[in-house]
Amino acid sequence: MLRFLRLYKNISFFYRYPSVVTFSVLIFLLFFLPVILLVSGLVPLSLRWVCLAGVFCISMFIALRHGYSARELGIQMTYLKQSLEANAFFVLLSAALFFFLSGYGLIETDADHPRALFFVFYILISSPLQEFLFRSFLFAEMNRAGIKQPSVQIFVSAAVFSFIHIIYFDVTTALATFAAGIVLAAIYRKYPNLAGVSLAHAAIGTMAIIAGIARTTA
Question: Residue 23 in contact with residue 141, Cβ under 8 Å?
Answer without folding.
Answer: yes
